[in-house]
Amino acid sequence: RILWLNGTEQHNRNTYGRCVYIHGTPEEWRLGSPASYGCIRMGMKDVVDLYDRVGEGAEVRVMRGSLLDTWAGQEYASKHSTGQLLGVAQR
Q: Could you give the CA distance from residue 53 to residue 51 in angstroms, rounded to a whole number?
């Protein structure tokens, strides 16, 4: 599955034309290290789960830092007993 991105700021509006996507990779051992030209790479099962949760047209915010620094991340973590924050998806 691939989620195509369109930038919202003037300097990055052409992400669609530059082929910048959210997509899965079969090389999951390489996640966490630079291996593309701006794409957001995910594990294969994770990208399918994300696509099923949000689908096309969802707003995606790329940010630095931990999701636990956001209100949505804190809310998610408070509702799940594992203590690990794997991600937050909203429609």
A: 5
Q: Which residues contact 53 (CB under 8 A, 6 or more apart)?
A: 89, 91
Please write the tens of the pLDDT for every residue from 30-87: 888 877 767 778 888 888 888 888 877 777 776 667 777 777 777 766 766 554 444 5
CA–CA gap between residue 22 and residue 57 (Å, rounded): 13
Instruction: Give the residues across from 23 on adjacent strands.
Output: 2, 41
Which residue(s) pair with 67 in the sheet? Answer: none
Helix (H, G, I), strand (E, B) or coil at 43: strand
